[in-house]
Every structure is written in structure tokens, then in C-alpha cells.
Amino acid sequence: MASASKHPVIRALLSLALVLAVGALFHADGAFFQWDTHRDMLRGVSVFGILACGMTLVIIAGGIDLSVGSILGACAVVFSLLSIHLGLPAFVAIGITLALGLACGVVSGSVIARFRVQPFIATLAMMVFARGLAKFISGGQKISTAVQRPDGTYAYVDVPPLFDAIGARIAGDNVAVVTIVMLVSLALCGILLSRTTWGRELFAVGGNEEAARYAGIPVGATKVLAYGLSGLFCAVAGICQAAQELQGDPEAGSTYELSAIAMVVIGGTSLQGGRGSVWLTLLGVLIIGYLEKILSINAVGEEMRLMLTGVIILGAVLLQRNP
Question: pLDDT at residue 320 above 70?
């Protein structure tokens, strides 16, 4: 039993069970037992879960990506500008937005791999640059359905159908489309990590970079692809964020990187690199999501929620620490 409790999956499941037990105890007049509560929780954490997919790849490679929130904000602004204000077809707006996210990630990865810059510094620089890019493109204003005319007046346009489609719920109003997007993202990451040569090389690079290099693994290219995919998932999250809010907010995604890192680490993926799984990240997403939801339905004030969340996150990390 003691050895089983050391396994990261068992530890993550125990943490999730503990959070669910707290929810059952403080159920807010039965609200915790209603499906709507769980559906809304899943919808609320979906954007974070998509970011956590890319963060998992980067952390397994032994890195960190502080820029995911800012890239999300920039992509949300670009996607809204292209689809709402310029009226471009959905596939064009999606393609350009995904290319932007991918490019941001590739730049970060290239700086880290080519110039041996610490991931913390390189992605911190990208975090600041992407936030500035979002504000530059938007002029510091939210990109909404209010479109300014040449004479300075505003005209209101309809929300593109794609926004309604992404923000909708399916299966009898029981599952949000954005939750499906998160699950697909998790599945793709799982396939990449477990079914491809690149996935095995990623674990090798994160476990021992020098040994991987001597083994003939293209360390630099492996890292660049990891950060590039992280940027790509940021773009997907940005599109979902814009669709749910019906606008592109240049401030969107602020501090989201902290939640994404917490979800990955609480799930059991090692910050040292070389160990982890996207399915552990899913458990981390559920732990954080349920924790936030339980505090919310019990009307716990924001200040207390932040403090409690910080304490519980620290406790969960200590619980999963190897002795």
C-alpha cells in the first residue's frame, strides 16, 4: 500500500478523491450533486486544460513556458479582429491564428535551443512581447461586435457563426463544445507522447539532456517542437476564449500560466523533466477545477478562495513529492 501510494497516478487520484469528498461534505444544499455543476466546472477549466496540454510537453522536456497566457491573449485578439471586424472566412481566421501561436512558440524554443537561454528568461521575454503585441494590434481596446466606422461612429455586427458553435453545448445541453476541444487536445498529446518517436525523445531530453545528445537525439529540434506545440495549443485556447467571451480582450489570459503550471505539477508531472503524462495533467485539471467550483458554490469570498487555493496547491504538491 505504501509503495502504491508513491505512484503519481495513485497520489493524484487520492488528491482528487479528497477534493470530491470535501465537495460532498460542503455540497451547498445539494448543488454539488447536480450535473449542471460538473458541466459548468468542466467548461470553466477547459481553456486552462488546453494550455496545460502544451505546458505538459514543455515541462517533460525539462523546460517551462511563462508566455502561454500572453500568447492566448494575442491569439484571441487576432482571431476576433479577423473574424468579427474583417469578416474573413472561419478557416482563414483559424489558420492565421494557429500560425501566430505556433510562431511564438517556435521563437521561444529556438532561442532556448540555439542560444542556450534559460527557459524562464526566454519565455518571460515572450510573455511581455505577446502581451504588448495584443495591445498594439487592438489599440488597447477589446475587439467586440462594435466596429468603428471611418466617421468615428460605431456599427454593431453579428457574431460569426463559429463563435456560437464553439460556445455552444451539445448532447442535450449537457456537454460544452469547448470541453470536447480540451479532451481532443489531451488525446492528441497522449498520442504524441506515447505513440511517436518524438514523444520518446522528449522524455529522454527531459531526463538527461547530455545523455540524449550523445545518443544521437536531435535535442534542439525536439525542444523547438515542444515549445512550438505549446504555442499552438495557446492559439487553440485563444480561439475558444474569444468564442466564449464573444470578443478579443488584450488582457485575456493574464496569470493563466500559473494555473496551467499548477495543473501539470499537481497531476504529478515532474518539474525536473523526463517524467509525466498528459493523463496526469487531466487529473490536475479536475483537482483545480473542482476545488474552484466547490469554493464558488459555497460563496467563499475571492480573497479567501485565493488563500485556500494556494494552501491546497502547496499541500497537494508536498503530498506528491518523492520521499
Answer: no
Query: Which DSSP symbol is given to 81?
Result: I
pLDDT above 70: residue 3:
no
- The continuous run of DSSP H or E covering 154 comes out as strand 154-156
**Predicted confidence (pLDDT) per residue in 92-129, tens digit:** 999 999 999 999 999 999 999 999 999 999 999 999 99
Contact (Cβ atoms closer than 8 angstroms) between residue 59 and residue 271: yes
Q: How far apart are CA 155 and CA 147, in angstroms?
A: 5
CB count, 10 Å around CB of 246? 16
Among the residues of the chain, which ranges form H helices? 8-25, 35-60, 68-80, 90-115, 119-138, 161-166, 177-195, 197-207, 209-214, 219-245, 256-267, 278-297, 302-320
- What does residue 69 show for φ and ψ, rounded to 5 degrees? -65, -40
Q: How far is 84 from 268, CA to CA, in rounded Å?
A: 40
pTM of the model: 0.93
Q: How far apart are CA 236 and CA 242, in angstroms?
A: 10
